[in-house]
Amino acid sequence: MDAAIQSKFEQILAIREDSERLEDAQQVTPYLRYVTGCRYRLEKTGHRRWGNQESPLEEGSFFQILPDQVDNGFYNWYCDNRPWHQLYHTPEMALLQFIFYWHVWQTEINKKDFRLPE
Questions:
Q1: Is 0.90 topped by the overall pTM?
Q2: Which of 1, 87, 101, 118 could serve as a FRET partner for 77 with CA atoms 20 to 30 Å apart?
Q3: Of 64, 73, 63, which Cα lies nearest the Cα of 38?
């Protein structure tokens, strides 16, 4: 991962959990449709493994974005490149990570850099 992408990733991870939140978790759906052109939904689960299959099972509330129908190939790429890194503590972090990696994927498939010039 190049330095600019790594820097943005670190900024995303530094966002505090008590930062501003979506008023309703379902606000994620229309936003994702607008940005990606595909239908996704936000799902909640009560446990996760983070990092790898051998990691301890965590209990709590975790959020994941899933496709509502077959998408344009991004979701398969996302799963292949982010195994065991898809369930987040907040809908906001799930959304930030999903959109961040959607842009990385767009850059890879289009061989075009969507980042703003510095």
A1: no
A2: 118
A3: 73
